[in-house]
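Run log // design_07
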């Protein structure tokens, strides 16, 4: 990172900043000491904020969006839900403008998670339903699976047990299908290896 800064290589700074932000964010997830984990996430926020500023300077919308989404995840971890929503909604706005459906679907899942923590269950369901529609539109089973699972939890929190059950059932069917597909793929790989 410092080398890129000394060379005034903005693209290198952005790439290194994103990588360092992700590294610190990922390390925090495996850290058992919560104080150390918080410090790692704060370091991730520092790098993601710098990356955002550099990306803004050169109008790099992909890295602006990545930085905003990373900041949203970091603030979610730190429990700063308001700031998490600010960053995630800003990322979503750009993704929608650029018709980046996959990224928008992921961001909507994250927005739903923040809203769930804030106990805004109606908003959670709205965001997750939008993510579900995108997942179905682009045929992305992971987005569909997580949207269904999280919607089930949100409906349960509101006492809408029938909706919670129906969404959990759809989630279970989708999850089983994904597991079966993966198992079939692995069996086919082993068969090819055995035959060669």
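design_07 sequence
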């Amino acid at each position: 990172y410092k080398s890129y800064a000394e060379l005034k290589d903005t693209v290198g700074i952005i790439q290194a900043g994103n990588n360092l932000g992700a590294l610190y964010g990922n390390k925090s997830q495996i850290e058992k000491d919560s104080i150390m984990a918080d410090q790692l996430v704060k370091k991730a926020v520092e790098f993601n904020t710098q990356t955002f500023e550099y990306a803004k300077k050169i109008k790099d919308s992909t890295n602006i969006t990545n930085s905003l989404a990373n900041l949203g995840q970091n603030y979610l971890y730190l429990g700063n839900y308001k700031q998490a929503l600010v960053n995630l909604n800003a990322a979503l706005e750009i993704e929608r403008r650029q018709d980046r459906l996959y990224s928008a679907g992921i961001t909507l899942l994250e927005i739903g998670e923040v809203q769930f923590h804030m106990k805004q269950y109606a908003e959670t369901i709205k965001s997750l339903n939008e993510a579900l529609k995108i997942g179905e539109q682009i045929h992305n089973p992971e987005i569909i699976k997580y949207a269904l699972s999280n919607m089930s939890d949100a409906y349960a929190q509101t006492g809408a047990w029938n909706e919670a059950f129906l969404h959990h059932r759809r989630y279970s069917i989708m999850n089983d299908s994904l597991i079966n597909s993966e198992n079939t793929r692995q069996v086919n790989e082993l068969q090819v290896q055995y035959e060669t």
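The first helix runs from residue 2 to 7.
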